[in-house]
TrEMBL record:
Residues where FMN binds: S97, S98, M99, T100, S128, N156, K223, T253, G303, L304, R305, A324, L325
Quaternary structure and partners: Homooctamer. Dimer of tetramers.
Family label: Belongs to the IPP isomerase type 2 family.
Enzyme nomenclature, EC number: 5.3.3.2
Annotated positions binding Mg(2+): E192
InterPro entries: Aldolase_TIM (IPR013785), FMN-dep_DH (IPR000262), IPdP_isomerase (IPR011179)
Residues reported to bind substrate: R40, K41, S128, Q129, R130, Q191
Name this protein carries in UniProt: Isopentenyl-diphosphate delta-isomerase
Keywords attached to this entry: Cytoplasm, Flavoprotein, FMN, Isomerase, Isoprene biosynthesis, Magnesium, Metal-binding, NADP
Function of the molecule: Involved in the biosynthesis of isoprenoids. Catalyzes the 1,3-allylic rearrangement of the homoallylic substrate isopentenyl (IPP) to its allylic isomer, dimethylallyl diphosphate (DMAPP).
């Protein structure tokens, strides 16, 4: 029988997963039967939390190091971590990357993440809202504005859905439901290719993305899911009206590995393994896109695991740095673990500022980072 991983009790401080039947009333609302999309969303959380789904290849950030400053001439207490993205102020240049929604566990996680984002002044994205478009009963799992009225908040849909009957109406709905500041369109050809019965018709999407950018009243952001965006593709996306890019490069969570773990047939499993380390490393995406588009609002993500990674990504040209898996793990643990993570990341970023003689985030770009000779 198909099962869903669902958190029903706690052992110590960690969420404990048990398998419940997919039609368990504890998992689904009274009316609806579980849809395939809901099962997939629950699977993604379980696989990401229980299996090793990280790249074995790296982000490329290890090829850079900050030049240490032995006399910063700064008071640590005065360091300024604040940032601005798409016109909204943030207390730190941190984004809780798009992850989840559509199940009760996803709801708990989204609300915890949103409360932390509100408390610490961070940005946040929700996971793909396709599950709610298909079944509006799961809308509460995305309704995080109630606990995060002030944050920079991103709606999320797969760009490929524009080839599967989605259009302006569905995108507008995703934004309205969230009262979102912008819509992220994720680009995930490898994930769809590895997924059993994935949506693999990516033909003629650029024009449809352009049309959406022209008509949606909020900015549209293009994002990968961990395989990176090249400078050439970034230029084409900017040409059609994309207002910001999240590189979501290689080196962190590998969606080929996630889908390989979930695959029901041997060929899809092997496909996922073969392409487990496919993609453009996060650092390479950042350098190339920043060079091609000096003024583009740019988000770094994919394999950022501590505040030093974040600071390097900012020094390479990012305006905002997103983490997915680390925030998921902390949120699945406890609210306290989440607060601890944010405070640790902030302390690490501040330490980089201090030890490079940088008073504020923009100073990181002033030649503080050097390539490590290989
Ligand atoms: C459990 C989980 C679910 C995700 N779902 C989405 C999604 O619905 N939409 C999206 O754009 N990215 C999604 N992502 C991708 C992340 O936003 C991010 O791009 C990727 O995981 C790389 O970041 P990381 O290495 O910090 O995990 C998901 C990631 C995780 C861990």
């Amino acid at each position: 029988m198909a099962t869903l991983a669902y958190a029903v009790r706690r052992k110590g401080s960690a969420v404990d997963f048990v398998n419940l039947p997919v039609d368990s009333p504890a998992v689904f609302s009274a009316r609806g039967l579980p849809a395939a999309t809901q099962i997939r969303k629950a699977d993604h959380l379980r696989v990401c939390l229980e299996e090793d789904v990280q790249f074995q290849a790296t982000t490329g950030l290890e090829r850079y190091r900050f030049r240490h400053c032995c006399l910063p001439e700064l008071d640590f207490a005065d360091l300024d971590l604040s940032a601005n993205f798409l016109g909204k102020s943030l207390s730190a240049p941190l984004l809780i990357s798009s992850m989840t929604g559509g199940t009760e566990l996803a709801q708990t996680i989204n609300y915890r993440l949103a409360a932390a984002a509100q408390q610490f002044g961070l940005a946040m994205g929700v996971g793909s809202q396709r599950v709610a478009i298909e079944n509006p009963e799961v809308l509460p799992s995305f309704a995080v504005r109630s606990v995060a009225p002030d944050i920079l908040l991103f709606a999320n849909l797969g760009a490929v859905q524009l080839n599967y009957s989605y259009g302006l109406a569905q995108c507008q709905q995703a934004v309205d439901w969230l009262e979102a500041d912008a819509l992220i369109l994720h680009l995930n050809p490898l994930q769809e290719a590895v997924q059993t019965r994935g949506d693999t018709n990516f033909r003629d999407l650029l024009g449809k993305i352009g049309q959406l950018c022209r008509h949606l009243p909020v900015p549209v952001i293009a994002k990968e899911v961990g395989n990176g965006i090249s400078a050439q593709m970034a230029e084409r996306l900017i040409e059609v009206g994309i207002r910001a890019i999240d590189v979501a490069g290689a080196g962190g969570t590998s969606w080929a590995r996630v889908e390989s773990e979930r695959a029901s047939d041997a060929r899809q499993r092997r496909l996922g393994q073969t392409f487990a380390n496919w993609g453009i490393p996060t650092a390479d995406c950042l350098v190339a896109i920043r060079q091609a588009a000096p003024d583009l609002p740019l988000i770094a993500s994919g394999g950022l695991r501590n505040g030093l990674d974040v600071a390097k990504a900012l020094a390479l040209g990012a305006d905002l740095a997103g983490l997915a898996l680390p925030f998921l793990q902390a949120a699945a643990d406890s609210e306290l673990a989440l607060q601890e993570l944010v405070e640790t990341l902030s302390a690490e970023i501040a330490t980089v500022l201090f030890c490079t003689g940088s008073a504020a985030i923009p100073d990181l770009r002033a030649g503080r980072l050097e390539s490590v000779a290989s």
